[in-house]
Records
---
Amino acid sequence: NMYKKIGFVGLGKLGLPVSLAIEAKGYEVIGFDISPTIKKILSEKKYPHQEKYVNNLLKKTKLKVKTLEKTILETDLVFLAVQTPHNKKYEGITRIPSTRKDFDYRYLISSIKNIIKIIKKNKKKKIFLSIISTVLPKTFDEKILPLIEPYRENISISYNPFFIAMGTVIDDFLNSEFILFGSDDLKSSQKFKKFYSTLNSSHFFSTTIQNAELIKVLYNTFISTKLAFINNAMEICSKIPNTNIDVITNALSLG
């Protein structure tokens, strides 16, 4: 493998399962997390959430948890899996308020600022950074790219959000329908494409950061739309005798 070591900044509900999956494919993974919980999980080899394969992989992992500086400087490609939580009122359990609220980007932005400090201190290194946390459209242009701008020689940043569900993170990551990769740096796209080709044969969909931001949220919305539509169809079937939702969905899928 041309890449030996993969870095993970953020070893939470997304970062840890994905880093274990990457390690299982033969890579050395070095990670950093501000929470002490991760060291506890690794020493006790028990995962506190329902997540397929994770407990088995924890038994044999050699994942190294190091400082942010070491994680950045010792790895070839770095994934940034820092949380970007949404406000509780937008959980989808209750009706969405009429006013809108963006995600909370403070954790993501502070980790990018900390990475910039490390790069300034260690002049030579060029890092290839992939942000996998979900952001809404225009976030890169307004909040992230201006921070990176003065350091473009040393930091290549891309947006690479995953299409995964909690509980089946590893399956969804290793068998993804496609890999969405937004970048304005051809070299970065080539490096990550090569890396992903060692994990699976999923289509590597390379585009601009701005397209990727929009594709990610529209993809999620499209799935919700299809679910709402088909649930509605099922309701109708329950009211009309001799109709069958399975027959109907089979027919619709031929369209």
---
Amino acid sequence: MKLVIISNRLPVSLSEGEGGLQFSQSPGGLASGLRTYLNSPSCKVGSGYVWVGWPGRSVAPELEAEVTRRCREEFSALPVFLSPEDTEAFYEGFCNSTLWPLFHYFSTLVSYREEHWAAYERVNRVFCEAALQAIEPGDLVWIHDYHFLLLPALLKQKLPDLRVGFFLHIPFPSYEIFRLLPSSWRSAVLDGMLGADLIGFHTHDYTLHFLTSVRRILGHEHEMGQVILADRVAEVDTFPMGIEFDTFSGRATEETMVRARDDFRKSLGNCRAVLSIDRLDYSKGIANRLLAYKVFLEDNPSWHARVVLIMVVVPSRTGVEDYQRMKSQIDELVGNINGKFGTPAWTPVIYQYRSFPQEQLLPMYAASDVMLVTPLRDGMNLVAKEYVASRADATGVLILSEMTGATSELGEALTVNPNDIPGMARAIAVALEMPADAQKQSMQAMRERCRRYDVVRWAGDFLDSL
């Protein structure tokens, strides 16, 4: 038995250099997490794995054979090549202009274009044919995320005895939101997902939302998460994704990281640090976070020149007009706060519009007194767990949006509603003034939970159930 993993992106990044195409391992959370599981003693996949996915860029037809060979030999991967037109209509179109806003409850931003749906169906069929090249009798197939909601049923139609698992890494919305999809699309999506023998979600709420939609749209009842279909049973269950806890916790105590943490703290002078790290996206609530910090500074003048917000925004979809407008709004808010409250000796917001490798993020996590994680909606949010894992001395305070999947596990965090600006401002004040013993009591409980249910346990539980 081998494991066939299917996701939109391969765990391989392709770039073009002077010597032609360059290959490197992707640092993405899913890729690194599954690599950790596959290399762990807990892994029960006897014959290794094959990872099926898009290589992240267009590849000239004459280079496809070489890319396929190197991906197979160096990364146990099978690349799926898409035309630029299909990539645009599938990824930027149906995935990110229809499913992403709808499943994150931004219904006014949803696009309903037939050509995008047609591309989504077409690409799911392309991936089905590609996966069939890698699948052998007895294999397990694990499909990931909203890009491939139709794929489980397509594979099951070709190989009825194949064991197929599907995991959704974003929220599954309530029935009233999901039903906004045109009737033929929503039925096809649910039928497609039910092609899997096991369907996993981050939280119990997402699981219930899916089962409610299945009952009200398709008419299938369930018994304790088991959906009775005409020819088989599909199991629907909750598997909250963890992180590589030991990696984050262990590296945070390494001498080089401790030195980098101390250097980072020194650079802030006597200021306490509030950290915010997010990809540029409307679901992340970055503007609300800045407004809350502004209200906090207005209401708490005693904290002026004693606190700094370190705001890291990772570029995303830089060519999309809505995202450019969002970036402009964030730039203006940062400038407004720094202009209103800043002095020659104190900058209230240190703003970085760039991505950081893990070795640079770890000192930031370890040095920051408060972590501000306040998305408007998020499937899980692993940044919150990474902060907890990096706090080796069990100090620090996590402020966490109740709209994230992580709140179901990190109940000791200061929970806020990201639409309540004054409430978030008050939470920042409470976090900065929290006594060390109270910090440790909360952080130790969250660290133990993250340690017990790490990414290896998550993957192992899912595959054992499958």
---
Amino acid sequence: MRKLFLFLSLNVLIHYVVFGQTISGTVIDETTKEKLIGVNIILENGEGTSTDIDGNYHLKTDIGVQNITFRYIGYTDHDENITLLKKENKTMNISLKIASEQLSTVVVSAGRFEQKLEEITVSMEVIKPALIENKNTTDIQTALEQIPGVNITDGQANIRGGSGWSYGAGSRVLVMVDDMPLISGDAGQVQWKLIATENINQVEVIKGASSVLYGSSALNGVINIRTAFPSQKDIDKTSWIKKYKNTGYTKVNMHFGLIDKPKRKGLNWNGEKRRAFKGFEFLQAFKLLNLDLSIGGNIFKDDGYRMGEIIDRKRFNINSTYKSKKILGLSYGINGNFLFQSSGSVMIWKSLEEAYMPLDGITTTNGDTYNIDPFIIYMHGNNRHSLRTRYLKVINDNSTKGVDNQQDNKSKIYYSDYQWQKNIEKYNLRITSGTTNEIVYASADLFQGNNFRRNNSLYTQIDKKWRRVNLSLGARYEYFSIDSEKDHIIDEDTI
């Protein structure tokens, strides 16, 4: 017969001290005056308490000199020395300073102004450049696929299952570089290869509709790639050579790999020669007087493991910002990306035995894509004016050896975005208003003609911070106009 014994042990420790003196008060943020919840108030003997939901605290202690520390994550510790008399009740209100070395992640995509990530009203993910560099990513799509809820299908971004691209309607997930859309004018497709992975500050992904600020292309979300600039402090101006050396940095990445030969002889179309892929990218950034400048590039070659699927890509970029000496708050500059690439693709392979060889022919695509973005920003008091413009040209020359196919396409985009922001600090209110204008010329052999498109829009958004609640309210008006070749005569030279 088995016996089961159950032992119960109860230990109770009661620590009871009676104090006749008290300290109480409120703890707030020194800058925003917001009451802080959960601030630790610690006495020298280890006793203490924390602030409640209204930022208030109440602490009983001994008579005499007391050393008190106010401690909160993200803020600098605040120490106080006070002397309490018998049965004295003392009120002490404290303001804590944010610790500069513990600043939160700052994003701009949600409201088109700098906000802490934890204060925005939409779901957002942020990718830091270290993730891209450590994985030797030469294509931004590879990094984006590591974000939960985001996947890339046939070159189109999908967020939380929403359609990334609709045939004839264009993108439903807006991809931007520095708040400027990077979408072709003919089919509305994202130009992933034009994005400079070597010069990224961070990638901000909004998981939800953002149509008020960004238009109908952002119905399922926004991916905003923010480029980096040198951020060194001012150096002694006695020597521009010294300034150049001390305020710049250089980054170089190289990679090389070999493609293994297939074990089945029928698939080894290349004989004994091994296929390889290799890449080289660089970035030079520096500050020279009032000029911030970065120049980068990427060269990539992939022989491919299938016959004819060779990728040869060369990409270069330049970013510049000049801060005016004469007009305080005025800055302007020009950014640019230039891509030259050729690639091969095959629709159908010969057979199971010769799976890596084409049946009919190899389609070769030679394409030049580039964008030039002049901009100007002026800040005066609590007002911010910005005008960003873009010229984007996409050229795709498709040809299949031995086949007379007409699948070439090319497009030009002229884009501008004017924005005005007003920050009313007294009421924790920010107003954002602006207008976007876009003109597109496109030509595609597949659609047997040219087309002309115009898009104009007006938008306004109000962001209000009320205690611990962040509110956003906005509206947008858009006008579209599309003319085919029958209705609108387009000169080929314009494309």
---
Amino acid sequence: MTAAPALQPVIVGAGPAGIRAAQTLASHGVYPVLIDEAARGGGQIYRRPPAHFERPPATLYGTEAPRATAVHSALDGLQTHIDYQPDSLVWNAQGGQLDVLHGPTQTTRTVPYSQLIVASGATDRVLPIPGWTLPGVYTLGGAQVALKFQGCAIGSRVVLMGTGPLLYLVAYQYTKAGASVAAVLDTAKLTDQMAAVPAMLTQPAVFAKGVYYVAWLRTHGVPIHSGVRPVRVLGDHRVAGVVWADGAGREHTLACDAVGFGYALRSETQLADLLGCRFAWAPLHRAHLPERDADGRSSVHGVYLAGDGAGIMGADAAEWAGELAALALLQDHGVAIDAARMQTLRGQLGHLMRFRQGLERAFPFPTDWATHAPDALVVCRCENITAGALRACVRDTGADEMNRLKALTRVGMGRCQGRSCGVAAAEILAQATGKPVELVGRLRGQAPIKPIPIHLQARQVRQSADAGASA
């Protein structure tokens, strides 16, 4: 197939969505640019270890090894058909250009674009508890990175807690790798999971895999407690244990030297925000997300959204959405595409939605978290802002919107730019004001969307000022 000669789309993110988008474009004679923050493509779910890492895919990815290998092989086969730029963090977007930091050389460059596919992926959704800032506390995703990329566990006796499918996947991967998992503490109740079975049976193979993980963990002696409430992490200078409450409110103490925790995932939407995409509240995800049509077109002409960065749907859906967004881009630029294939992909994504709803029923967000958060709890660790400080701001100033709260307290102004604390701060604000969380707003994306060396940002500001003066 022949593509328009001036067409060179840019794809941000080399996870399942970005790789399939690049593969689709290349198969239509287009030479895309694929920019990825990681040294090797695969994304978080299929994070690829260093080249000479000795552990085989079956050990690293378990039952997901065939899918991981297929995604990795697809990227390897594209090397001469795309402009692949690894180790490159897109930290800003403005005026049809992306600002990109090359990690190994610590240099920044600009990459122009006319057509852009954003496949920015997701990160852990964090709801802190007292003690979460102690050394030895990791997110579930961080614990998984340590295992996949560095071949090590986060501790010798690990407690994993929170909720969501990732909780059980990480527990399975850790135990299978020989690590000691002291317990899995799930805030979801067994009744939640049983009620979700009909919806989850719409994807029987995926459902069976989840059942297998739980059965395997129990068979191998890993205690699993459901319907719990994490209370605090114990320790003076590093983790020494956790305290959790059961469904009856009784507290239990469990010794450990590391904790991995998280409450499913949240979409990385900062780049879409900087690009000017329109956002709307998505009840299923309990988040404001960039709007897109069924094929991935955003509200901004030439910008397409794919994968978990536009809504958490999982790795399979990310591959389909990446291909679909690429086909939509080609279609919009007059390139002949397979319309039947687009319809098939839409159908697959639509069919998966009921399963996704089942997951939310099985692993619900703990909506009472803010009620139990003590005033002394550090919500924003970058700026050392406590839940009490946020509540006092609401009480003293009447602040009832996230960006107003940010301006008055500095919550979300640190290195994470609200990526870690934003969800928790919004829940505290909603609880303090008595407003539904969807009405307190969201933190607006700001550059840099991830930390970069300050001297590089200062240079960028000078260059922008010089360009404006010359214009």
